[in-house]
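The pair is set out directly below:
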Amino acid sequence: MISSRPPFQNPLSTPRTRAVHRAIADARRGVPVVLAARKPLILAPAETVGAEGLRLLDVLSTGEASLLLAPSRAAAVLKREMPDHAPAIALKLARPLIDTATLKRAADPTMEQILPHFEMTEAPEEAQAALALGKLARLLPAMVAAPVRPGWATRREGADLLTVPAADLLAYPLELASTLMKVAEVSVPLDAARDARLVAFRALDQGIEHMAILVGEPEKQETPLVRLHSECFTGDLLGSLRCDCGPQLQGAIARMGREGHGAVLYLAQEGRGIGLINKLRAYTLQDEGLDTVDANKALGWQADERNFHIAAAMLEALGIGKIRLLTNNPGKVESLAACGIDIVERVPHKFEPNGVNNSYLETKARRFGHLLG
């Protein structure tokens, strides 16, 4: 039966949710938005902003403009250590605002790094929310920002710009989980599990869908085997040897087929939540010598950006409470348990290196604490 009841209480009202949806869409198109806070900002992503976006930022802002970067990215741009605990580092931008090509190079470490000298300036207190908008849009977390000019909304240039509260951007990951609902269910026999079903989930934003692969009737078992699997286009679909994602997915389904029951939550959180394009950028940096953790950080992301509230909401909607979690990652156990899921056992899920992914697996053990021994 398809349920229309979201599993968690929605922290945002519908109009506020719609404002976040539009802000994400505007960010992907390079259209500036106004961040409502104690000190409002006008901002746009460095990756997508064009000449017209910079013109709007210039005429609708007052005071000092800056490029907001995660500390790990700012360290590379400034060529010196940055405090990891800071929500963002602000680099002063001269007026008129510098060209879009320079901004893109400053945001993207995979591009040719011919950059002007930047000076640090004080980051606004809304910097964390500003970077959150870039991440929600699956762009590089690098934002051009400036204090918005009083009366900006009455100017012809500002009439169509969106205002979104900073707090709503920070609350949105939980809101996504709160609005998740089942939208389709169908039998899809698989080679390793002939009685498999697919259940599709979609959130209120009508964006990317998450899937549950159900083998047998896990919802009727006391403690079914469950695997959380973040989608991996290169590994799952193309059979890439750079990771172990394909074998992990097929191995989980085969094991559940043998046991007769189980659930794989196939989460649309590519690259541990950074998105496919950013994962490919991280691959480029790995080819230059960085491991998977440092590559993500060089792009301005954390090592793991996944939203485990999504998985918890899916399990609740499926009627699955207690589980045996098929994983080598203790951090995944902790994160899912923190979302209220009762995990009675961690079940190992190991595969041998293939000669290409050896260093990748070593990094998972050394940097993430995966139990691969």
Notes: Residues 14-29 form the longest helix (16 residues). The two ends are 42 Å apart (CA to CA). Confidence is low (pLDDT under 50) at residues 1-7.
